[in-house]
Amino acid sequence: MNDRQQIKLTQGIDWPIMGLYLALVMIGLLSIFAAEYREGDNIWQNVMHQSTNYARQVLWLLVSLVLATIIWLTDSKFFTAMANLMYAFGLLLLLLVLAIGTDVKGSHSWLVLGGFRFQPAEFTKLCTNLALAKYLSSLETDFNKLRSRLIAAALALIPCAIIILQDETGLALVYFSFFLVMYREGLPGVLLVVAFSGIILVLSALLVDKNILFIIFSVVTVAVIYFSRREIKRSRSRLVLILGVWAFCSVFVMFIVPFAFTKVLKDYQVRRIEVMLGKENDPKATYNTRQSMIAIGSGGFFGKGYLKGTQTRFDFVPEQSTDFIFCTIGEDFGFFGSLIFMGIFVALLLRIIFIAERQRSTFSRVYAYGVASVIFFHLAINIAMTIGLAPVIGIPLPLVSYGGSSLMTFTMLIFIMLRLDADRQMVLR
Amino acid sequence: MSVYNQPRRRVIQLIILGMVLLIITRLFFLQVVEKKYSKLADANAVLRKVVYPSRGMIYDRHGRSVLRNEVMYDLVVTPASVKNIDTNYLCQILQIDKVEFRKRIVNAIVKNGRVRQSVFSPLLPPEIFGRLQESMYLFQPGFELMQRQIRSYPYAAAANILGYIGEIAPQTLALPAYKDYQMGDYLGMTGLEKTYENVLVGQRGIQYLVKDNLNRPQGPYEKGEFDTAAIAGKNLRLSLDIDLQVLGERLMRNKIGSVVAIDPQTGGILAMVSSPTFDPNLLSGSYRTRNFSKLFVDTTKPLFNRAMQGTYPPGSSMKPLTALVALDEGIITPSFGYPCRGAYTACGRSIACEHSEPGHAANLRLAISHSCNSYFVNLYRLEVDSRKWGSVRKGHQRWYEYMRSFGLGHRLGVDIPGEYSGTVADTNMMNKNYHGQWNSCSELYVGMGQGAVAVTPLQMANAMCIIANRGSYFLPHFVQTIDNDKEEQLKKYREKHTVAHVTDTVYKSVIYGMEDVVESGTGRNAQIEGVIVCGKTGTAQNNARINGELVKLKNHAFFVAFAPRDNPRIAIAVIVENSGYGGTYAAPIAGMMMEKYLHDTISVKKKPMMKTMLDYVTIDPVIREKSKLDSLNGATAKLTTDQILNVYFHN
């Protein structure tokens, strides 16, 4: 262990992740700059006075890098030790927000400290990930038992529920990404299939008339019963299962979805989903998606060139520094640039999975998968939203979008993982 | 455990790759396959703005600008930016009340929205502009002053010559010749503004700007790569003498009629007065439409350019032309005389002559100076009945052709639109009027300028040029040169037309006759000290059919002249409607105009004459009473007789 004192500070760091991280934050900075910069702006003055988003983002980046350094210098045991405490702290923060939070753009999810605004819902992703890793890696946990699975699910869904109460549905949905981690850790695959079928069921319920769907379900069910009549003769339970699925689907489509859409979801949420499905033609409602698609679509193959995009620079795209930051890339760098950009993210995700799989401790593996899942969920929803594949859900693009809470959370997520990875040889936790 | 989970890792990787592939496929369709988005983006963000060049200016023969562009200011407002301003003070400067202020703001919002500029107060008068400019910083950024170019006429004269510009009409816009114009563009509607629209307008530039989501321009698109620069319109230089024009308009005040003065050596028009006239500035600027309708309905018809649209029987001023035809055809010599006894009776009816003393028409010169009616109706008859032609029809046709070559009976082609052709009866018309039964007696009055002949003052001035030049003329025109232009349009005005082939000595008898008219005859009022003036008065009978009854109205006074006799520099035609004798009412005006042009001043001796002319009112009292023109009148508006006299006679 004495050798360790002489080892370089950077010993054990995973350089590919580090490089991809830096590439993404730089792309982010340049994109925020492009979204905001007007010819003739005095950049230095803006940076000095912190009067623009890119100037503030530079500050957040510096803070993030300081945090990253601190994390890197911390012993990895600290994170395992602190995981539950941090989760508790995170929940406390979320509850605090419910009590004394500030409304920003219709969501009651911000804490104002001095001059700074902070969104705990971002930070609790980290806490949840740590707590989940801690729980799944603990020796008492047998993830094959239903009880453990329920506890793990609760760990993810409790913050999610509080965040929904804060009217920040987008960030709340992110917590569902932890089910991908649980799947990796042994949650039955059939759940994934069920979840997927559920999504398809919801979509078809929205797109197709419910009576027609009911008829289709019935026909399919009759067909299935006919073709599996031998098996049914062998076991009655098969028939019960098939009829159960038929009954559930029918009830779901006929009653639950319409009920959810009229009673549970808020008006704007319903409208956003309808916009995505192309059912809503009101220009006001479709404005965001339309402008975003125009910006990205007008980029063409090679793009208009950096700082030359007319749509992003002249405020046609809403929220272009935060949720719609991808428009800048799509417009200025075209399909070619978007491809490279997506390539960088894919490389990052695959590298994280690679790192996860090389861990000897369950904690580190679960944690790393958690990081990958959260980033993937953010990426997929955010980009899909900008190109009209998903309803407008306000979640940022990791490391790229403007926003201190988001940038710091993802930085910490990644650097804790790097710290854990650097120490992977140490012990089996 | 790890080995057991290997397929799950693959599943997760596949989920990630699958989702990314879905996104990339979508991006491919959005960015590469679908082309509509770049068009939509341009529609979103590119603003095509027409840059208007400044319109060409117009100078008179001495380089004085008679039509130029003036910068005026509009006060524009951006309602969203109006904050914390002293509304009371602004209202006080603009001389409006707060109710009006609020009304205009609301109008601006309704018209253009809150974040775009709208005109709050157009074309600020100079004194308001001055006060506003001093305190503008108090009202910014909500209010700004914005430049605007309008046409301005510093001399407030020559309205019908210069013309005005107006918004293009939809039916004009549909014509292929106007394909470069857009709705709302201004173009020349009348006068020189219309004829020379193609050179005055310049070339519009197009600027592509990028705009933001609120339609606010944000700067050039692609660094102005697709922009085309605006090229300023070309300037016109006229033969017009603006001083002469103003003098003419003043002398003609309170009279209906016109004055046309032409430089015989070039055909360039020196002055073209149509009275009553108006201040051309009225048809420029914010009250254009209102003023136009006032002028349009006015009983004195100020928009009617009588100098080339009014047609009159020329009366005796026609006689030199009758003589020229006979001389050119060799039918008479200058020594030809006619024994007039105070009337012409050869055609069975009596045509009275002003003179009855024997020998007053003993030769051509005497006949012209005495304006012997008998002599010239006889001359017409001799011309058309000449054996040379074989029949009266051929003779009359020949006479008609002469008249045409003198510029009568057809449009001369002056370079402002709307010219009338006048009338000269050709054989067809005679056949029609007389049902084919006619002879030299039927229309013998045309020899003395009555009957089937009607001319415009412009045509008469041009005819004087022919006599002054001894048989040749240039098409009368205004524009001498166009700056930096090939001047294709002007070629026809530089072509000399020769119409009669009479020897100089023969001309002399006509010219001397006209000299005598001014020296000792009816045109004495046109005399100029030290200059030999040749002229001819005409008193055209003016019969009109009112309620089906032929009523004899007061005669039109006509006077045509040129000066000096040798090397003439100015030819002029003056008509004063419903006044009386040409020598009394038209000749003094012609004399003063010529003197002003030749000497650049008017001799003090003519002061009483000018006073008389200025004060002389021939305009019908009924028409005058109904007219609202006094307040609209141009160069003569607001000036008293004494003030005008002081302009020309200092002391």
Automatic annotation (TrEMBL), chain A:
Membrane topology: Multi-pass membrane protein
Subcellular location(s) of the protein: Membrane
The keyword Secreted is assigned to this record: no
GO biological process: cell division; cell wall organization; peptidoglycan biosynthetic process; regulation of cell shape
UniProt keyword list: Cell membrane, Cell shape, Cell wall biogenesis/degradation, Glycosyltransferase, Membrane, Peptidoglycan synthesis, Transferase, Transmembrane, Transmembrane helix
Regions crossing the membrane: 12-34, 54-73, 85-102, 186-206, 212-228, 240-261, 333-354, 366-393, 399-420
PROSITE patterns assigned to the protein according to its UniProt record, in alphabetical order: FTSW_RODA_SPOVE
Cellular-component GO terms for this entry: cell division site; plasma membrane
Keyword Nucleus: no
GO MF term set: glycosyltransferase activity; lipid-linked peptidoglycan transporter activity
InterPro entries referenced in this protein's UniProt entry, alphabetically: Cell_cycle_FtsW-rel_CS, FtsW/RodA, RodA/MrdB
PANTHER family to which the protein is assigned, alphabetical: CELL CYCLE PROTEIN (PTHR30474), PEPTIDOGLYCAN GLYCOSYLTRANSFERASE MRDB (PTHR30474:SF1)
This protein's name: Cell wall polymerase
GN (gene name): rodA
From TrEMBL, chain B:
Membrane topology, record value: Single-pass membrane protein
Enzyme class: hydrolase
GO CC terms of this entry: plasma membrane
Chief location: membrane
Subcellular location: Cell membrane; Membrane
Record bears the keyword Transport: no
GO biological process: cell wall organization; peptidoglycan biosynthetic process; proteolysis; regulation of cell shape
InterPro entries given in the database record: Beta-lactam/transpept, Beta-lactam/transpept-like, PBP_dimer, PBP_dimer_sf, PCN-bd_Tpept, Penicillin-binding_protein_2
Domain Penicillin-binding protein dimerisation, chain residue ranges per copy: 51-217
NCBIfam families per UniProt: pbp2_mrdA
Protein's name according to its UniProt entry: Penicillin-binding protein 2
Name of the coding gene: mrdA
